[in-house]
Amino acid sequence: MSNVLVVAEQRDGVVRGVSHELLTAARTVATDLGGEVHALAIGAAAPAGADGLGAFGAATVKVVADPAFAGYSGERFAAAVAEVARQGDYGAMFFAATSRGRDLAPRVAALLDVPLAGDVTGVGVADGTVEFTRPVYSGKAIATVRSTTTPALATLRPNVFPASESAAAGAVETVSVTVSDATTSTVTSFQAAGGDMDVAEASIVVSGGRGMKDPENWNLLIGLRDAIGADVAALGASRAVVDAGWRPHGEQVGQTGKTVAPKLYFAIGISGAVQHLAGMRSAGTIVAINKDADAPIFGVADYGIVGDLFDVVPALTEEIRKLRAGG
């Protein structure tokens, strides 16, 4: 029997939704390997929502609750994950391809002396071997990777594996690990300025590209976001914009940024390079605004407006405000 271990991600003591996506992906692999899905939650206390991981397929939820894990430390957390991994019979281990997961997973791989498949968008089992698919060359091609070692480690891209419930036992098991005094450095988590919603978790994304011409023009997108509602909408940006220093990397959508799957995605002044499309093509409805009728973004858009965004966006914002005000 080879079980699959999902390293649940938590923020501020609460299990994040991406953990449910990982469990959903892990279920198929565990079934094909003839094992179970286990979840591992680490923190100063049992994170809120850890006991609900069973609803998404975790037969066992292992909880490491120790004051030493009050703040995230790559060295300390990796040592704990590796220790739990060595104690179990795991054919695969999944992490979220988030900023924390991308820091933690390579450390665990090094401690276990196994390779790591990063930014995975597909998982399965072929001939008894765990198999991953992942984009390469900025999404221009898809590579299939088979792991010949145990456990097979991978970071899974958020918003690619839709979370679905499938109840399992979800038995909570408290686990003790050895905490070394040498691994005491911590990383402080920072929220976006003003408490802005994470673009990867928003149900509506207002994203801008180089067509915005100047960082000061982002006030147009902020106005549209606020008209929709900052409690449901978030700002996004293309790689060119982030590379130019106009917007923070946390807002970048694309192959080297974040993958989003909102119900509604506004692509404003974005040409639609392959790198960007790789991060947003899973959106429910895509609205593109661009003055270039031949822009590639219109090839994936559900609705397209060919026009000057500096005319279109203010008009769109005003109409949304009227609708929300009941006018």
Description of the structure:
By secondary structure, the protein is an alpha/beta fold. The chain has two domains: 3-174, HUPs (Rossmann fold, 3-Layer(aba) Sandwich), CATH 3.40.50; 193-325, TPP-binding domain (Rossmann fold, 3-Layer(aba) Sandwich). Helix content is 26%, strand content 27%. The protein contains seven helices and 17 strands. The strands form four sheets. The protein has a seven-stranded parallel sheet. β2 and β3 (14-15) form a beta hairpin. α2 packs across α3 (99-112) and α4 (218-228) packs parallel to α7.
Characterize this entry briefly.
This protein has 327 residues and is of the alpha/beta class. It has seven helices and 17 strands.
What are its keywords?
Rossmann fold, 2 domains, seven-stranded parallel beta sheet, 7 helices, 27% strand
Number of helices: 7
Query: CATH topology of the largest domain, anyone?
Result: Rossmann fold
Structural class: alpha/beta
* Neighbour order of strands in the largest sheet: 7-11-6-1-4-5-12
Write the CATH homologous superfamily of the largest domain: HUPs
Mean pLDDT: 90
The secondary-structure element order is: EEEHEEHEHEEEEEEEHEHEHEEH
Tell me the number of structural domains: 2
Question: How many DSSP-defined strands?
Answer: 17
Radius of gyration: 21 Å
CATH class of the largest domain: Alpha Beta
Oligomer: single chain
Q: Quickly give the CATH architecture of the largest domain.
A: 3-Layer(aba) Sandwich
Helical proportion, percent range: 25-40%
Strand content: 25-35%
- Overall shape: elongated
Query: Main β-sheet: number of strands, strand sense, barrel status?
Result: 7 strands, parallel
Uncertain spans, ≥5 residues at pLDDT below 50?
188-193
Report, as a whole number of angstroms, the end-to-end distance: 62 Å
